[in-house]
Amino acid sequence: xxxxxxxxxxxxxxxxxxxxxxxxxxxxxEYGADFNDRIIYRNKEYRYDDSVxxxxxxxxxxxxxxxxxxxxxxxxxxxxxxxxxxxxxCVLHGRSKEISIVSxxxxxxxxxxxxxxxxxxxxxxxxxxxxxxxxxxxxxESCELQAHAVQSLIKGIPIHGYLSADMTVIEQLxxxxxxxxxxxxxxxxxxxxxxxxxxxxxxxxxxxxWYVKYRDxxxxxxxxxxxxxxxxxxxxxxxxxxxxxxxxxxxxxxxYMDCKEHMQTNxxxxxxxxLVWKARQYEINPAHFYSLPxxxxxxTEYEEFYVDEEQFMELILELFYEEKKx
Length: 326
Known about the structure:
The protein is an alpha+beta fold. It has one domain (31-323): Aminopeptidase, CATH 3.40.630. The protein contains eight helices and 15 strands. It has helices at 2-26, 139-153, 170-176, 207-213, 222-247, 251-259, 269-279, 309-320, and strands at residues 38-41, 44-48, 52-60, 84-93, 98-104, 109-115, 121-128, 161-166, 181-183, 200-202, 263-265, 283-291, 294-298, 303-307, 321-323. The strands form five sheets. Strands 11-8-3-4-5-12 form a six-stranded mixed beta sheet, with helices on both faces. The longest helix is centred in the last third of the chain and has 26 residues, at 222-247. The radius of gyration is 21 Å and the shape is globular. It starts with a helix and ends with a strand.
């Protein structure tokens, strides 16, 4: 009996050591060249909050495109061909146990790395954030490039992991939580007769895909309006997914396994599950869904979104730093 107790205690210790080691691994993130752990802003000193975990989530434009006013059809693209049409930062605040979501406009003008068809680096150039993904030679390279571009945009803040999914997975995600409820933000009757501004719709089947994917490229600032729809979908989806996870910790694992063929991530399955376990303690508040501050302008050929640097700095400080108290 005594020997069994000793073996049991030994196993508990080993498991505890493994959990602690994995927990530390969650906080291993690469710091960007522009990162500062100490910032002086308007005569106040701020320190980087090292309890924060930051993850990049990308929705990749793959398949189902709209051509010449025809109803969208499947087309043969590979994931690395696509652009990052939906870009979000998921920020877990370790001290307050809250989750913030920051949506990044796909047309944000920032430095991206340009490569030729042989994969040889050519130059850094100001261009829309979304196109960086297309310069990778494969899915992993594309995600790494996109992560570096986002990290440069957010002033070198460490990104602890990324997850990308082609937009067709939206249907599966929506179905997994029993459908997402939205109040339609703009008239899109050409896509679905229920998509009339002001209508409350319980998204089912492929409605979810079209609601977050469609935009009229001939209409000015259509990407901005689509981003608001994506945020709207994400708010209800995140709330329902969190509730399901609290009811059944296996829910995220099953969802991931169902969708993994459409996904790319640099997080191992054990790290993902540890992150899910940790996130169960956190709260998601719609007030903590943010948009990148700035404005859309018409460029020489395409729309361009320019960040309001002053407001952006204030958002960076709010999300990632703590004011140093005397």
